[in-house]
Amino acid sequence: MKTYFVTGGAGFIGSNFVLHILNTYPDVRIVNVDKLTYAGNLENLASVLDDERHIFIQADICDRTAMAQAIDAYKPDFVVNFAAESHVDRSIVDPGIFCQTNVAGTQTLLDVCRDAWKTSSGYGDHKFLQVSTDEVYGSLPEDDKSVLFREDTPLAPRSPYSASKASADLFVKAYHETYGMPVNITRCSNNYGPFQFPEKLIPLMFHNACNHVKLPVYGDGMNIRDWLYVEDHCRAIDLVLNEAPVGEVYNIGGHNERTNIHIVEQVIQYVHNNIDTTVDASLIEHVTDRLGHDRRYGIDPTKIGRDLGWQPETPFEVGIIKTLDWYRTHQAWIDNVTSGQYQSYYERMYKNREVLS
Ligand code: NAD
Ligand code: DAU
């Protein structure tokens, strides 16, 4: 029986990963460590909170004592580090917490794992997997679609968020080179699916459209993101954990580049067709651009396909409907996460954005 030590398992991708693993393997144990920041939500895990294979611990990955105690108590085979501050807009307003959680937190976990796992004969079958992002590579030219992020593309982060993730990647690599730690790094493109907090593009636009609130498209709306259904990302992470040689980095993506305005129009069309026929494109409002806004992301996933046999299984047209169906049928979940502090967050982020003509 394998024990997975998952950090950030109450967030969007982490909770999808926990559910994926528990649904895939009957004989498994998950130790789920999450600080429960604004982005962590135990409602995401409601279906497994009573499952004895799932152990939840509320703790901060920066807390060395708590991490050491948990690793010592459960002796995990794998550590999968999802825990992070993940929203670019927040990192522009308050970079410090990104440095703390994403860099210092990752380095703390690496230290704790090294000390717990290292023996005179090495690290056995343990593995530390760092869940990173395509944003560490910076921004691509929009006029040449043949240029994609490869694993050997130089790191060139441009936002405080991506700088913190790139720093964490360098620490993970350094622990591999210096202490021989068995690590992998995965760098995935934009995820979408159930349980994504509505500070991110798709759930935010859905929530606003349903409530007849303007849809704030940054700049000209022609920035490009490469979208992957979250379940496909979770499968890839598990494959890398179980099959990949240590020390390797894998890009994860599904060749699915879309402009933001295209995504927003799809959300509007869904809401119009399924919820409220009065919702239309007149809700779109082009507003002041994100500072330093990366223009285009595009992943080359050749390596993980060739070496590990991973392929995305969910076409975007299927995944986006599944996702929006999920939000439509989980109104209570949306109501809960958009009450309280969400309103002041929204005011802070959007009130002063100028509407572009
Ligand atoms: P999220 O913001 O939805 O969830 C982050 C989780 O981490 C939350 O549950 C939060 O409570 C927890 N957390 C935050 N600080 C913590 C701390 N100090 N200690 C313990 N737990 C803490 O993020 P997400 O979108 O699920 O992203 C998960 C990971 O995947 C992140 O590392 C992110 O950089 C990476 N990633 C995200 C995407 C994407 O499109 N969302 C794509 C590629 C990579
Ligand atoms: O590429 C992977 C990354 O994808 C992850 O590492 C990050 O954790 C995740 O948040 C995501 O980052 P983005 O900045 O691409 O995602 P976000 O949903 O914030 O924005 C997607 C695009 O939509 C981006 O070009 C900005 C734009 N946008 C976003 C919001 C919230 C808008 O135009 N209006 C908005 O209100």
Task: Explain the overall architecture.
This protein has helices spanning 12-24, 64-74, 88-93, 96-117, 160-179, 201-210, 230-243, 260-274, 302-308, 316-328, 331-337, 341-350, and strands spanning 2-7, 28-34, 54-58, 78-81, 127-133, 183-188, 190-192, 215-218, 224-229, 249-252, 257-259, 284-287. The chain has 357 residues and is of the alpha/beta class. Helix 1 (12-24) crosses helix 7 (230-243). The chain has a 7-stranded parallel β-sheet with strand order 3-2-1-4-5-6-10, with helices on both faces. A 3-stranded mixed β-sheet has the order 7-9-11. The chain has a two-stranded parallel ribbon with strand order 8-12. It is 41% helix and 17% strand. The protein has a domain at 2-193 and 227-255 and 296-315: Rossmann fold (3-Layer(aba) Sandwich). The radius of gyration is 20 Å and the shape is globular. Helix 5 links the parallel strand 5 and strand 6. Nicotinamide-adenine-dinucleotide (NAD) binds next to helix 1, helix 4, strand 5 and strand 7.
